[in-house]
């Protein structure tokens, strides 16, 4: 499957599903800890229930993987145990997420946290697909862009501004350079460094123009 701007006909995704898909793509790109940034905002607004437990469990799971890779064994096992509790009782494919590999990874961490040094964390799947950035639609790309920038140690604030400008195009049903750049940043890993440079440059110039315009109406300017 290739990246697309809208789901296929007959397929509707709510905000939770879009956030899930964005975080899964970030996780599968190897940014295990940063993936939680795609889930956290929507998780905080969820009422108690199975969806809240799913996101809470996935957030704890990615944190456990992060701590294990940093050789913080106590943190990994503690968070892993918490993740297992949150995911306990959910169906194997709640909200389309295959929880079998997650549960097995958590069991491995609990039994021997140094397992992480002998095996890669499992890829996450949604409705049977191990998602990458290329599988995300435009809105999902905007949800994934900032966590991806965080995982790569880049300027998250600049990427956030670019995403805000890109959302203007989605909301108005038009197009602008920011939408193309933000989606390319997520979907095209081999060009990501180049796209990031262009994206942040465009965002800086747009912000500078906005400040110049604001200065025209500043009585103290």
Automatic annotation (TrEMBL):
Q: Enumerate the PANTHER family for this protein.
A: EXPRESSED PROTEIN
Q: Which organism is it from?
A: Halalkalicoccus jeotgali (strain DSM 18796 / CECT 7217 / JCM 14584 / KCTC 4019 / B3)
| Origin: domain of life | Archaea
Gene3D superfamilies cross-referenced by the UniProt entry: TTHA0068-like
Q: What is this protein called?
A: DUF309 domain-containing protein
